[in-house]
């Protein structure tokens, strides 16, 4: 006897209406598998999970295998195969939040909700979980509540929030006063203080509207690139690659399609400068993208917004719509025939690795955020195999200002090898955390005086993938030829435990590794375990050499920047705080090292990466 369609739907775990909803979501992006992130985000939002039956429907609609869809859905932290609460609360678990009272905030949430972190209430109303840095270190402890954020949390504030949510008030009304009456910009400002402590002349001072774009239209593509090269502008994400050279390479590559991508996935713990630019200078960001498009001949652009900044999505979409209405995006920009360019917003879903440009491109293509093998480089073969320029928010803003004001003006600030100004995200043990726009070349000591951190004992420059320095090197300067940084400056006073900080950052890298290559996936677990031995007083002096040797191996053999920089918390503290390690490393009585179980050490890495190793897994071939 033939089965009824409704019976078949029920057996699949989805009703006919639910299946139709998922198919409609896929059709909104023309069933394009490259738009998998958008599909999964909308399914997660609609159903509070991406179930196995939902993956089947998505696979059928997009022409992919079920395993391909599951590979993407399982990669990103914000996707879940099990239903999340109608209100999902993600507590920022960054080290700064921990030092700012996260433990009491967590206890308050657990008490008010009668669940522990990692659980969902029996009625499906609330989920509570931890998440790494969400770009709010200057106002910690902080949390995401669905698509909104809340800062400067206290136990008292937690009880007020939960009481209002339990009474039936939506998060929007609880976290933003008069939410419905406010513009997207006003909502963002209500939730988050931008803490602009020092506005420099380039990005945070007065900015003429679209002066750079007007100049770009008048001068043409070749002159745009020459101007950037003359200015000396270097990428502001930390690596410092010359921006003009990158644009020239993309423009010189023969292709029918080219792309400009704005990397707004600043996931480095301690970094939040791009968050401020996206809020206060969104027009300048899109102006910079449009200038880049003019320079390389691109007609399509993407701004990749980290999932933690979802609260800015409405603001950015509003600005994009305004620019289209004024002829600054779309066909014939500023009346110039053939100058056609538009931008779409791509939201991420919680993956630190997507800050790496290859992983970011993979994510934009609807794939797991795994780095791409290089060469080829994105400027010759990037998004969808086409020449692609990827620059971060700050770099694109600088490019727009340079075109509008002049290369010599920009080059006259900073230092010879590091021209211009830099936005520094300062957080931690200081009186005035926030954003400081200063010329390159400022010393750590001068910056600490500005931020009110005279008692600083250690400063982390560039986030955990950067360098931790001690008091005796505070005269070093923030510039590419000394302390290069993407912008993060985290201050720690003498009460902080250096090894606790290092162990936290190593656990962060273990969690955020994409799992593709063994050195990063397994090696960082070994480093984390070894630091744990030092903290417990179980380390031998020979363990110091072990840390150095293993770190060097991970750096030399990892596939991408995450593995190449993940040992930095250990290497820089070994160099600048050697007594911290030697003081706790004691020779054992029998001159043997503590036993080490390699299998238990890498178990967490197996579970996180969903991969096994030819070398370390005994049953790999079974």
UniProtKB/TrEMBL annotation:
GO terms for molecular function: 4 iron, 4 sulfur cluster binding; FMN binding; metal ion binding; NADH dehydrogenase (ubiquinone) activity. InterPro entries: NADH-UbQ_OxRdtase_51kDa_CS (IPR001949), Nuo51_FMN-bd (IPR011538), Nuo51_FMN-bd_sf (IPR037225), NuoE_dom (IPR042128), NuoE_N (IPR041921), Nuop51_4Fe4S-bd (IPR019575), Nuop51_4Fe4S-bd_sf (IPR037207), Thioredoxin-like_sf (IPR036249). CDD domains: TRX_Fd_NuoE (cd03064). Pfam families: 2Fe-2S_thioredx (PF01257), Complex1_51K (PF01512), NADH_4Fe-4S (PF10589). Residues 499-544 form the NADH-ubiquinone oxidoreductase 51kDa subunit iron-sulphur binding domain. Keywords: 4Fe-4S, Iron, Iron-sulfur, Metal-binding. The keyword Iron applies. Its cofactor is FMN; [4Fe-4S] cluster. Belongs to the complex I 51 kDa subunit family. This is NAD(P)-dependent nickel-iron dehydrogenase flavin-containing subunit.
């Amino acid at each position: 006897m033939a089965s009824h369609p409704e019976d078949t739907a029920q057996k699949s775990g989805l009703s006919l209406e639910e299946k139709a909803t998922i198919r409609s979501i896929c059709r909104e992006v023309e069933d394009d598998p490259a738009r998998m992130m958008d599909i999964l985000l909308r399914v997660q939002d609609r159903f509070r999970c991406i179930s196995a039956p939902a993956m089947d429907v998505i696979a059928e609609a997009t022409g992919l295998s079920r395993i391909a869809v599951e590979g993407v859905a399982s990669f990103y932290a914000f996707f879940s195969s099990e239903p999340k609460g109608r209100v999902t609360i993600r507590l920022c678990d960054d080290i700064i939040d921990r030092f700012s009272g996260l433990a009491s905030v967590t206890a308050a949430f657990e008490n008010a909700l009668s669940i522990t972190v990692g659980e969902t209430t029996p009625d499906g109303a609330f989920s509570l979980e931890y998440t790494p840095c969400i770009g709010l270190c200057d106002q910690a402890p902080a949390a995401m509540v669905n698509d909104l954020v809340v800062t400067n949390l206290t136990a008292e504030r937690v009880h007020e929030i939960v009481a209002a949510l339990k009474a039936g008030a939506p998060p929007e009304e609880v976290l933003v006063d008069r939410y419905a009456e406010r513009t997207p910009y006003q909502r963002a400002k209500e939730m988050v203080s931008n803490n602009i402590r020092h506005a420099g002349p380039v990005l945070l001072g007065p900015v003429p509207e679209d002066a750079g774009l007007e100049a770009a239209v008048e001068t043409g593509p070749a002159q745009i690139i020459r101007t950037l090269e003359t200015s000396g502008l270097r990428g502001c994400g930390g690596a410092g690659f010359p921006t003009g050279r990158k644009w020239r390479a993309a423009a010189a590559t023969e292709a029918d399609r080219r792309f400009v991508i704005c990397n707004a996935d600043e996931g480095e713990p301690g970094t939040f400068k791009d968050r401020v630019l996206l809020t206060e200078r969104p027009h300048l960001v899109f102006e910079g993208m449009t200038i880049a498009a003019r320079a390389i001949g691109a007609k399509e652009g993407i701004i990749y917004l980290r999932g933690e900044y979802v609260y800015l999505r409405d603001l950015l979409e509003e600005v994009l719509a305004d620019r289209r209405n004024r002829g600054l995006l779309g066909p014939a920009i500023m009346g110039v025939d053939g100058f056609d360019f538009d931008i779409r917003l791509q939201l991420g879903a919680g993956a630190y690795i997507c800050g790496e440009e290859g992983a970011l491109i993979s994510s934009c293509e609807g794939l797991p955020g795994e780095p791409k093998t290089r060469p080829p480089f994105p400027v010759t073969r990037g998004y969808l195999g086409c020449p692609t320029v990827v620059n971060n928010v700050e770099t694109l803003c600088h490019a727009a200002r340079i075109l509008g004001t002049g290369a010599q003006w920009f080059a006259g600030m900073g230092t010879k090898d590091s021209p211009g100004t830099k936005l520094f995200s300062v957080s931690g043990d200081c009186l005035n955390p926030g954003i400081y726009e200063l010329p390159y070349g400022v010393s750590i000591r001068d910056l600490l005086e500005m931020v009110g951190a005279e008692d600083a004992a250690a400063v982390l420059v560039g986030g955990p993938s950067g360098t931790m320095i001690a008091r005796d090197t505070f005269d070093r300067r923030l510039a590419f030829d000394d302390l290069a940084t993407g912008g993060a400056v985290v201050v720690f006073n003498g009460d902080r435990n250096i090894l606790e900080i290092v162990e936290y950052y190593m656990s962060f890298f273990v969690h955020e590794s994409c799992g593709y290559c063994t050195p990063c996936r397994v090696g960082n677990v070994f480093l984390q375990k070894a630091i744990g031995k030092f903290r417990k007083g179980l380390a031998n002096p020979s363990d110091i050499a072990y840390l150095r040797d293993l770190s060097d191996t991970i750096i030399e053999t990892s596939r991408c920047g995450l593995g190449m920089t993940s040992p930095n918390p250990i290497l820089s503290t070994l160099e600048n705080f050697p007594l911290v390690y030697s003081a706790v490393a004691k020779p054992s009585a029998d001159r043997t090292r503590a036993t080490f179980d390699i299998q238990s050490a890498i178990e967490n890495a197996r579970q996180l990466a969903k991969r096994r190793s030819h070398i370390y897994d005994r049953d790999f071939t079974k």
